[in-house]
Amino acid sequence: xxxxxxxxxxxxxxxxxxxxxxxxxxxxxxxxxxxxxxxxxxxxxxxxxxxxxxxxxxxxxxxxxxxxxxxxxxxxxxxxxxxxxxxxxxxxxxxxxxxxxxxxxxxxxxxxxxxxxxxxxxxxxxxxxxxxxxxxxxxxxxxxxx
Length: 146
Hints:
Blueprint: E1 5-8, E2 14-16, E3 22-28, E4 35-36, E5 55-58, E6 62-71, E7 88-95, E8 101-105, E9 120-130, E10 135-144
Parallel strand pairs: 1-10
Antiparallel strand pairs: 2-3, 3-4, 3-5, 6-7, 6-9, 7-8, 9-10
């Protein structure tokens, strides 16, 4: 049975453009140019800046693999986990334009053995779970760039 609809697991962290390509939603300090993810409206994270207003921006879709690991254990309740649990990779990707490092799950069927620091990665979305209302909840993630 297919889900009734598809919605983000967390609202406001990513969106799709007109072509259906996903991008992360971040924030940028107009005073010093510092980027932040996840997005927020205030409090520049740069300790040398006293800016308190951040503006919402679309972040780069591509970046370089900065680091990675592999999760080999299912998360404890109340976090959703497939049964049976399958190990998955987690990537830290340095965004091409912003220099910001963003963590995310790597697509299924790509494990740590498939990854190498410095390789090009691109943003995608993937299902996380189907909620009690039959809505498929999706998250952003990373895949090796084609």
